Amino acid sequence: MIASIIVNYFGHGLVQSAAESLLRDSPGMEVIVVDNSVDADENRRLRQVLDPRVKVITNAGNTGFGAACNTGIASTQAEFIMLLNPDTQVLPGCMAKLQAALERMPELAAVSPAQLWESSGRFRLPPAWLPTGIEMWCIEQAWRSHAVAARMSNAYRNLALRVWQPGSAQVVAQRALSGGAMLLRRSAALQDGGVFDPAFFMYYEDSDLCWRLQRAGWQLGMVTDAYVLHEWEHTSAKVDFMEKSKQIYIDKHFAGRGAWQQRMARGMQRPALAAPLACQEHDKACPVLDVPAAWQGGWLLELSPSALLIPAVGWLGSGPQAEIPAHLIARLGTGPLYARIGPDRPVTRTPLPVFRLA
Asked: What is the DSSP string of 262-323?
């Protein structure tokens, strides 16, 4: 049996859509919504719009995402636990494929579906990348070195291509999974006490979980033919939460272990580059990119608010031009947007055209 946990914070309309998608795909599923809003009107609206089959737990305070998920998980005995963000909807067949992967592969503690960024399925969200001390040091180097930036950014691009390319293995091994759409094996996730560390209010709680699961000998995977639609948006309000949680994660797993922190502190004394990847200016009001002739048979377009393009959403397409829809540009915030076009295959040291859309 599967139980799904959705955490609500003043998003009853989104939660309704997410819950309905779960029940359409798996009518017998147990769906549990944990309401963190601490608002009587929001709680009333939530209960009004939800299917009667959905169980609502009302928290007395906003405990954060991870702790709210723990509350939901404690209320069910289901062996498989689906964690789903409110702005996410499972697509037909998703849950059956995720469950089948866990039943077929007992070494897996958790699996995630592929995440589509918009309903046409062209753009996809990238896979998660497990943060480590060395990786954080390399990222800081990349902000200060054109050569390191190119290598790191291409490495992230190649990681994404492993799951974006048609014909990828049905289950692709991963070092990290997104807590926004993850099917957990209960017996694996609870073996060291709890699923999420409540010290993380929001963000990095899934990285912490994935780190602990792998240290315990479990494996993780992405089921590439199972899909969710995740209409993710980048907002500046998320940055502070991410930085605070990042520090908690570092202190928990990497503080004082190795010389990377000292090297990173020394490196950060140098100012970061405004454009670590050499880029051309492009008018955001005319978001059409010309594709070099050599790549018109198959290309990858990446978009990101980060000048490193780490992380980036991607579209595998073909033809002489790549057009970026205006409504997707709006989802990436009001600041500069970076776009990169290249062949639909992995590259290592090859510099690819990067554009700054402003």
From this structure: HHHHHHTTSPPPS-SS--EEE-TTS-EEEPPGGGTTSEEEEEESSTT--S-EEEEE-SSEEE
Are 242 and 225 in a shared domain?
Answer: no
Instruction: For 7, list phi and psi in degrees, rounded to 5.
Output: -100, 130
One domain for residues 152 and 189: no
Is the preceding omega at residue 287 within 30 degrees of 0, hence cis?
no
* Residue at 24: amino acid letter: R
Q: What's the CA angle centered on 121, arms 225 and 22, to 5 degrees?
A: 60
Instruction: Kindly state whether residues 257 and 295 are assigned to the same domain.
Output: yes
Would you say residue 166 lies in a domain?
no
Does residue 330 share a domain with residue 280?
Answer: yes
Q: What is the pLDDT of residues 227-253, one digit of tens each?
A: 999 999 988 778 888 999 999 998 999
Give the range of the structural domain holding residue 238, as residue numbers without chain letter.
131-161+234-358
d(CA 284, CA 286): 5
* Same domain membership, residue 281 and residue 143: yes
The amino acid at 146: H
What are the tokens at 241? 């939460």
CB atoms within 10 A of CB 211: 20
Residues 174, 158: Cα–Cα separation, whole Å = 13
- pTM for this predicted structure: 0.94
| Count of structural domains, the chain | 2
Residue range 191-231, pLDDT digits in tens: 766 799 999 999 999 999 999 999 999 999 999 999 999 99
Retrieve residue 337's tokens: 């947007």
Q: Token digits for 336? A: 């500069």
Tell me the pLDDT band of 121, cut-offs 50, 70 and 90.
very high
Token pair recorded at residue 286: 């005319």
